[in-house]
Write a structure and sequence with these properties.
Elements (H helix, E strand, L loop, with lengths): L1 H15 L5 E10 L10 E4 L4 E4 L5 E7 L1 E8 L6 E7 L3 E2 L2 E3 L21 E2 L4 E2 L2 E2 L5 E5 L12 H4 L6 E3 L11 E3 L11 E4 L2 E2 L19 E7 L4 H4 L6 E6 L8 E9 L3 E12 L2 E12 L8 E13 L4 E15 L6 H5 L12 E16 L4 E18 L14 E23 L2 E23 L18 E19 L4 E25 L5 E29 L2 E12 L13 E3 L6 E15 L2 E19 L7 E21 H4 L7 E19 L15 E11 L2 E10 L2 E2 L15 E2 L2 E10 L4 E8 L7 E5 L6 E4 L4 E9 L1
Length: 802
């Protein structure tokens, strides 16, 4: 396979040097009123999906082969202009843009490919990334009504096919999503980012995301599936990036929003931003609290973000960002199957379990434009954070003895990293080509401790014996160097090939001590053994990928992509004392690949689709087994799995279909359907072969209606997920509720948003038919056991822009 990919890359390069004369298309973009040049205006070649920006004199330039093209020019605050040209020689094309109507307070200018009701796709080249021929989605949060005050993932990601979403808390403190049959726990199978840099706990050894930005402050969410492994790292699920809102184009703007909801929920949000000369800034603060809908489930959270940018000159821009999160939540624990059957889902079997998170994330960015053809981005980041999980980890069918000490698992994360990306446009065989090369350095350190805490029911996160912990005290250092390159080769105006390669060098270590304590039936200690551990694993490898894209028409695209993937063993796989399961000491890394074949775009003026087939091969998959005649889970490399299926999305614009489209009213119907078959094809345990992979619903359906009239937006949404198993043995149930079936369920939501002038009023009801269901069984916190999803709840919010 690798030799074949290299051969194909060589063929592409050879083709690129054969023929096809290129010509220079250039011109200026001026203001039609003042005749002043428009600096940093964008000129876009529609059929090639490439663009360039004007310089300080309003000048732009392309190298194009002979043919007919449509050029678009746009700039902030100006109307968009289009011209069709026939290129047979060097050609001058000038634009004069008129100012938009002065009575509009705020204008957003989108490329034609982004004019959708809440979901779009990334351009072939966007920012400092290459996305041609890759399965991807962009969620535009301002374009539709959804419950953003509680970060309701079911609504926010409604138009992204193939996502399995765990619903673990009513306030959206963290995000649990996955695609294509991967584990949703804290989105660990995605490379999660904010504004392009890592935000997870430890990108190599513990890629779980305890931090989630406030959806009220997020402008867009970018999702790239498994093919993102070449540019963003080695996760099977792909890349998930939250883009925080940009600074408004005025010296000062304030946004205040106050929301209340069911179960004592309160959300206070304040953002401030602006631009002045060379400086721009944006920041927000959010406070959330709630009593919870289950017993013993209150919470509070403080969330903040600040960014300042400095445009040193027309070529250089610097930026500095800081994110803060502090939250504490009481966890009611899980339920047994019998609890759920009786409908006693609001009860709690634990009143001494607590969880808290402290997150500090700092990032610095540098953008430098050498020319219109070449630009550089450097992003560095550092994380000093921690999480504490406190309580009783024993199986949920056992009574919590209030006289027994509780267990505290403490993680402290100290990570630094930097990425450099160089994007260069070049002409190959007279066609515009885009080359992206980059490198990454990452150094992480996770300190993990586990020991006893006093038996009270207070949130006291203090070890009883900090110098002599009862379970373990470990350091997990990690280091990573990587280099990557991708290139879009435009073979014709419609057809392109995008090969890529990534080199990884990874070192992970484990250093520490752990105890093995043996007790008799009375609970007395009869033996105590102390073990030390000092292991180091070093590996270097290369990942390959290649994609192809063909435009049937300007906004309808057929694509295919193959990319290799890799996932390192995590720290949770190496050391954790949990009475519910044991770890395999010989656990190893996971490898495999993703393949996509799809078509996306506007089939008809009133119908937008994204239909794709995928195949995911996952070797040495880590999971849990339930050995016969035991209630203890065994975490190990379960075996090799293969996942294939259909991911489909379609949206129909009713008024366009009826020929009654206007700027005041819109009505659209959307459907998001995924059909997935995921089974173990090889396993060390013959009883596993042929079994369904855990947490993979065979059917996932989300559909709904978006309606807007002037300043009012409404959304109705229906969600259905088929049944799932929670372990590789496909057990139906057991007394501890650690494993078993997750039954199929459906749920409906309704949201309304009204924005009269500077005000914003939002309201809605989640799960308005009050379905009783659950999406996961937890092996540890916030369980163990069944974690029920939130019952019917309401919210209302009032905001004002100043």
């Amino acid at each position: 396979m690798k030799r074949g990919v290299l051969t194909l890359v060589g063929v592409v390069w050879a083709i690129a040097h054969l023929n096809a004369q290129s010509y220079t298309v250039s011109g200026t973009v001026l203001s039609s009123e003042s005749e002043e040049p428009l600096e940093a205006a964008t000129v876009f070649v529609r059929s090639l999906n490439v663009q360039t920006n004007t310089d300080s004199t309003g000048y732009y330039q392309f190298q194009l082969s002979s043919g007919t093209y449509t050029l678009q020019a746009f700039s902030t605050g100006m109307e968009t202009a289009s011209k069709q040209i026939d290129v047979q020689e060097d050609t001058k094309v000038n634009f004069r843009l008129a100012e938009l109507s002065q009575n509009l307070e705020e204008v957003e200018v989108f490329d034609t490919r982004e004019q959708t009701s809440g979901v779009s796709r990334l351009r072939a080249v966007e920012g400092f990334g290459i996305y041609e021929a890759k399965k991807n989605e962009v969620i535009l949060l301002a374009d539709f009504a959804a419950n953003k005050v509680t970060n309701n993932a079911r609504q926010v990601f409604a138009k992204v096919p193939g996502l399995n979403i765990w619903e673990s808390d009513f306030a959206g403190l963290q995000l649990d999503i996955a695609a294509r049959g991967l584990g949703p726990s804290r989105s660990a199978n995605f490379n999660t980012r904010q504004n392009g840099y890592d935000m997870s706990a430890d990108a190599l050894g513990y890629p779980e995301s305890y931090y989630l930005p406030a959806m009220q402050a997020v402008d867009r969410i970018e999702i790239v599936r498994g093919a993102a492994s070449l540019q963003y790292g080695t996760q099977f699920g792909g890349m998930l990036n939250f883009r925080i809102k940009e600074a408004p184009d005025r010296p000062l703007e304030l946004n205040l929003e106050q929301a209340v909801g069911s179960f004592g929920y309160l959300n206070s949000y304040l953002s401030v931003g602006g631009r002045s000369d060379k400086l721009d800034y944006f920041g927000y603060y959010q406070y959330r609290r709630g009593d919870g809908w289950q017993e013993n489930s209150g919470l509070y959270a403080h969330l903040g973000f600040a960014r300042i940018g400095y445009q040193a000159n027309e070529r250089l821009k610097l930026g500095l960002e800081y994110s803060l999160l502090n939250y504490q939540a009481q966890q009611p624990g899980g339920l047994t199957d019998e609890d759920f059957r009786r409908g006693e889902i609001e009860k709690s079997r634990r009143e001494r379990n607590w969880f808290r998170v402290s997150w500090n994330l700092l990032a610095a960015t540098l953008d430098y434009r050498f020319s219109d053809q070449t630009k550089l981005n450097i992003r560095s980041f550092g994380l000093i954070s921690g999480r504490d999980a406190l309580g009783n980890l024993n199986q949920i069918d056992r009574v919590d003895d209030p006289t027994q000490n509780r267990t505290l698992i403490r993680d402290n994360f100290q990570n630094v990293g930097a990425e450099a990306r160089l994007l260069h446009y070049l002409n190959v065989l007279g066609k515009k080509s885009a080359l992206l090369v980059g490198g990454r350095y990452y150094n992480g350190l996770t300190d993990r401790q586990q020991g006893d805490v006093n038996p009270s029911d207070d949130p006291d996160f203090t070890f009883l014996n900090p110098g002599d912990l009862e379970d373990f005290d470990y350091d997990f250092p990690s280091r990573n160097y990587s280099l990557f390159a991708e290139n879009i080769f435009n073979v014709t105006d419609q057809f392109s090939i995008t090969p890529g390669v990534r080199f990884e060098h990874i070192r992970t270590d484990s250093e520490g001590v752990w105890k093995q304590i043996v007790r008799n039936f009375a609970g007395d200690i009869v033996a105590e053994n102390v073990f030390s551990d000092n292991r180091s694993v070093v590996r270097s490898f290369i990942l390959f990928g290649i994609g192809a894209s063909y435009y049937l028409q300007y906004d309808l695209n057929v694509y295919a992509n193959f990319s290799e993937n890799f996932r390192s063993v995590t720290f949770s796989d190496l050391r954790l004392n949990n009475p519910n399961f044991v770890l395999d000491s010989l656990i190893t890394d996971e490898r495999g690949f993703n393949f996509d074949l799809g078509v996306r775009g506007a089939v008809l003026p009133w119908l937008d689709i994204d239909m794709s087939l995928f195949y995911l091969r996952y070797n040495n998959r880590i999971g849990v087994l339930l050995p016969p005649a035991t209630t203890l889970l065994f975490r190990t490399n379960v075996g090799d799995s293969r996942h294939y299926g259909l991911e489909s999305y379609a949206e129909l614009d009713v008024f366009k279909l009826l020929g009654k489209s206007n700027n005041q009213t819109s009505l659209s119907l959307f459907t998001n359907l995924s059909l997935i078959n995921a089974t173990y094809i090889e396993s060390r345990d013959t009883a596993i072969k042929g079994k369904r992979v855990e947490y993979v619903p065979n059917v996932m359906l989300r559909s709904g209606i978006n309606y807007s009239w002037r300043d009012i937006k409404t959304t109705y949404q229906f969600s259905y997920l088929g049944d799932q198993f929670s372990d590789a043995t496909n057990s139906v149930s057991n007394p501890s509720a650690l494993t078993g079936l997750v039954p199929s369920y459906h749920v409906m939501d309704f949201s309304v948003e009204y924005t009269p002038g500077r005000f914003r009023i939002t309201t809605g009801v989640n799960n308005f038919t009050n379905q009783k269901y659950f999406t996961r069984r937890a092996e540890s916190y916030p369980g163990p056991g069944i974690i029920p999803a939130t019952i019917r709840s309401f919210y209302v919010s009032l905001g004002v822009r100043i």
